[in-house]
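Dear support,

I submitted the protein below through the web form. The confirmation email said the job was done, but the results page showed an empty box. After a refresh the structure appeared. I'm attaching both so you can tell me whether what I see now is the final result or a partial one.
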Amino acid sequence: MGIREAAEFLGVNPSTLRRWEQEGRLLPDERTAGGYRRYDLPRLRPKLFRPPDGERKTVAYARVSSSDQKEDLERQKHVLELY
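What the results page shows now:
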């Protein structure tokens, strides 16, 4: 993908990607014959751009369709808490 799409994917401005390239923080995967930067989606999220492990949260969701299934709901909650 091009620099505009890559910047949108990362939630930054294309000029930020150019600056990161100058700093050596994020290099394009290739350049076209015309000199355009090309980025590969799976490589755009290196550890440098991920939040530290301490800041990550896990959200669990359990539900049943009626109050008659309250025991099922409790079982689901227990399984999710173990996870």
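Response: this is the final, complete result; the empty box was a page-load delay. Residues 51 and 57 are 10 Å apart (CA to CA).
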